[in-house]
User: What shape does this take?
Amino acid sequence: MRTYIQLFRRPGVTPVIWSQLLARFAMGMQTITFAIHLQRIFDNYTVAGLSIAASTVGGAVSAPLLGQLMAKIGIRPVIFVCTVTTPIFMLLIGFFPISESFAIFMSLLLGLCVPPIQPAARAVYPTLVDDEEQRNALYSIDAILQEIIWIVGPVLATLLIAFTSTEVPIVAMAAIQLIGGLWFISLHYVHDAPIPRSSRRLGMVLKYPIVRVMILVNLLFVGSFAALEIGAVAAVGSKQAGFVIAMLSIGSVIGGLAFGHRIKKASALTKQLAIVLIGDLLIFFNATDPLWLGVCLFISGIGVATAFATIGAIIGKAVALDDTTEVYGWIGAGQNIGYGMGAAIAGFVVDHLSATHSFGFAAGLDGIAMLVAFLAIAITPSFMNKEKKD
Assistant: This one.
């Protein structure tokens, strides 16, 4: 814990961490809120599903574009425009769903305008911390906060819906998005961060082999989460699936705190993905028992936040600072594509085969991600020394 205590004593770390958490928190509430809201309005799940898919597609398209735009004109103007625009689309979906097509189109625009907080924050981190061990710990904290967003966000949304209405969490999301985003860009640690402006054309960062590897690993890795979630719901029911999925996140938080700052060798990512795969494979001993499923996903979770932390550290060390916002944008696009692909294929697998086959699909994606990381060890930076690659 000493590493984390020393980390939060560094100037700028605490406000940047908490402001970016608040600025991203609405995303943890969004999916379940709009799914329930639109289902109640249109009395079907098709519109809800299409709206969520449209938002995911929008996010996948805009992530690298906004990341590259931040690299050219700076963090503040891009996030300001997105921060004041996103709540408008949230409120339009919540209070003016005049037709099914309107709701889907507004969801697409919402996805296109989601503020690129995480790419911006990860570009700022290296300017706050110069010690490599503390920087790795900072990436670990970032990955843990991502898990907290997806644990607390859906729970808060469902509680607000249960005791009030679906409109209340929508208003809450809009307010949280606005306050968090404006707080984040108001920090001088963010808008005065010494990040060089990039003169590269969009997509030039993809020439780095390690960037392509990290995008592919993220696509496969996040796709496996979607398959696990759908498989869990089909295997044990929606109520018990909540417990099961929470165990994955709890394991991730614990693993991130315990091991996220201990990244040393270039093989670290391969080993972390191996832990996730072991948990996935253990599921097959009793795939329909919620308690066993929870234990297995807890084991998988131990490798999740540490893997995300390692990916962040790899990009931070292997890529020039002026290219990091675009790179993280491409990684975000890969994650969106992976989640949508994983959910779509897993749904088909469950409908035509079984929930157990969906777990097999998830394990397959994790296994391929681990293999990709293993084959890329030769081009993956080591963290045993202080030197940074250009």
